[in-house]
Amino acid sequence: MAKNLYQKVWDDHVVRQLDSGQYQLFIALHLIHEVTSPQAFGMLKDKGLGVAYPGRTFATVDHIIPTDDQSRPLADDMAERMIQVLVEATTQNKIEFFAPQSGSQGIVHVVSPELGLTQPGMTICCGDSHTSTHGAFGCIALGIGTSQVRDVLASQTIAMDPLKVRRIRIEGELSRGVTAKDVILHIIRTLGVNGGVGFAYEYAGSVIENMTMEERMTVCNMSIEGGARCGYVSPDETTFEFLKGRERVPEGDAFDSEVKKWRSYASDADAQYDDEVIIEAAKIKPTITWGVTPAQAISIEEVIPDPDLVQGLEKNLISDALDYMKLEVNQPIKGTKVDVAFLGSCTNGRLSDFEQVAAVLKGRKVLPSVRAIAVPGSEKVDKAAREKNLHLVFEEAGFEWRKPGCSMCLAMNPDKLIGDELCASSSNRNFIGRQGSPTGRTILMSPLMVAAAAIEGKVADAREVFGLGEVQ
Amino acid sequence: MKAITKFGGKGVYVEGNDIDTDRIIPARFLKCVTFAELGSSLFYDVRFDEEGNSKGHVLDSEQHRGAEILISDVNFGCGSSREHAPQAIQKFGLKAVIADSFAEIFHGNCTTLGIPCVTMGKDARGKLSALVETDPDAEIIIDLEGLKVICANNIFDINMKESAREAFLAATYDPLDNLLAASDEIAATAVKLGYT
């Protein structure tokens, strides 16, 4: 019977069905970090349990690590303690830990793919909702809570209900200046923040097929913002080419036989789906958020929506969001004053993101009133960027070039908004208070749009600022 | 782990769609190596100003003190996978959440901790939250076996994920012991897939 990738990977990894009706699923790769995992080791200790498959778990630090001064002990005592607990636990349990300054540390969802740990056909878990990123390689990649981190450590399995699968086909060609980030913001805007609840999203169609792996990661990364527990792309030549030669990927004949296996996981041409959505690529414009959920998004050409056009709690959602964001109904979003520009995160902190921005930043300056930071997603990204002198382009333009970490995406480290500052951000969440100030404001956008906002000091159309193609 | 079948308590209604886990527990409170102290940080930035003064949130009102059933709206618990959110809910003293719908990771985290997440339609929820506002002491009884909520002589239909309901009734909602019981099958799966 024809199957989609989700069904193939699921069927392969099911250990058994539980009495509750859920399934016990083997987890091929488990990634842990310092915020949601130390407590799980405590839980294991309380139960007198050890780690069942330590070779299938990998650790790094990303959420709380500062991006300026990383010297130890960290200035923040609790942050230091959390790292220590993770180091102790990984040492005791023989789990490989990618420490700062090892050359491999970084945001967990950047590190694993660049090492080649993430491979097609795997089930992947991490105590972080953006684990969906790894779906770009053709994996079932799930964000889990700490008790499930405990379950994976103790048994290498989780209990789970099967998901339905919605195929989202993006057909046609993207216009110039429209990026993977715009595609996923457009999808979330179209299907809503809870449109994906109960579903895995399979991204397909000519636009996805033509994307690089880093672009596919950007799309899959934000699946969870659309309510989908995971999102994936069927593996293809682009996937195999990306993996070839990576540190943790076999070489020679072994690689060829892996490719054969990986290819077999791709969705069959006549596979069935529980739902299908087709999106016309030409209709996607540079898309940014105006509100406090990732679905509260519009194209750069649109005006801020009017709550009076809807009813009930939906109306409250819009008017509360506008109050919080201090934005005016029916005004263009373009021109909104920006205080901070943040380039980085597991959504857009990879080499190609910095390359793309560096190409347009040359010879331009960030407006002096804007605090602009560029935070590479990993030490490998940082190194590769430095080898190409990209850091100099950013610094010359007025960005600070930082050390790798989650930084201002979630502000568990010193990088935070102050007061009601408005941030043009390449991250993934614009929730109230997300960037560290209870009144701080976030506008999500693509790296190109962040660069345009940094230069103009206001929300701007990157296509106009950088002369990229037609603006209608 | 005890079976959870039928239980009751005072309710409190926290209005809003798409209440995310950053709002339930802001990220700065995630700096902890145990979950023990999270109760007081529940909904912190909605409840307190930057000096720590109460903003008069419904969770802090005198009449809702001791509430054990949280009522909310659409897509409750969306966003981050942080288990700190249900941990904070539980440590605050809340035993169950009634909403229109739940985000999936949050729902799973709650279930494992023994916090039933039950869904109730808009009209029923409107009536229940109005009842709770007019009579904060009214007891809400949640019956997972009969899939009913009873409050002040009203009976409301509820729904929940069948696997979660089974797990609460059979006292298997924390799945770890069950998962560990299959160690031979786990090992066989690992070998079959070449995960050694």
CATH topology title of chain B: Aconitase, domain 4
Proportion in helices of chain A:
25-40%
Largest sheet data of chain A: 5 strands, parallel
Distance between the termini of chain B: 33 Å
Average pLDDT reading of chain B: 97
The structural class of chain A is alpha/beta
User: Alpha-carbon distance between the termini of chain A?
Assistant: 47 Å
Give the structural class of chain B.
alpha/beta
- Biggest sheet features of chain B: 7 strands, mixed
Total of DSSP H or I helical runs spanning 4+ residues of chain A: 17
Q: Strand fraction band of chain B?
A: 15-25%
Tally of DSSP helical segments of chain B:
8
Strand content of chain A: 15-25%
Strand segment tally of chain B: 7
- Unreliable parts of chain B: none
For the record, the CATH class of chain B is Alpha Beta
Task: Write up what this structure looks like.
The complex is a heterodimer of chains A (472) and B (196). In chain A, the strands form 5 sheets. Chain A has a 5-stranded parallel sheet, with helices on both faces. A 5-stranded parallel sheet of chain A has the order 17-16-15-18-19. A 4-stranded parallel sheet of chain A has the order 11-10-9-12. In chain A, helix 6 (180-191) packs parallel to helix 8 (213-221) and helix 13 crosses helix 15. Chain A has helices spanning 5-13, 38-47, 77-92, 108-115, 146-155, 180-191, 206-209, 213-221, 237-243, 252-264, 312-325, 345-348, 351-361, 379-387, 390-397, 447-456, 462-465, and strands spanning 14-17, 23-26, 29-32, 57-60, 96-98, 123-126, 140-143, 157-160, 164-171, 199-204, 230-232, 275-280, 287-289, 297-299, 340-343, 371-374, 400-401, 422-425, 441-444. Chain A is α/β, with parallel strands linked by helices. Helices cover 33% and strands 17% of the residues of chain A. In chain A, helix 6 links the parallel strand 9 (164-171) and strand 10. By secondary structure, chain B is an alpha/beta fold. Chain B has a single domain (6-171), classed as Aconitase, domain 4. In chain B, helix 3 packs across helix 4 (104-113). The radius of gyration of chain B is 18 Å and the shape is globular. The mean pLDDT of chain B is 97. Chains A and B meet through strand 1, helix 2, helix 3, helix 5 and strand 8 of A and helix 4, helix 6, helix 7 and helix 8 of B.
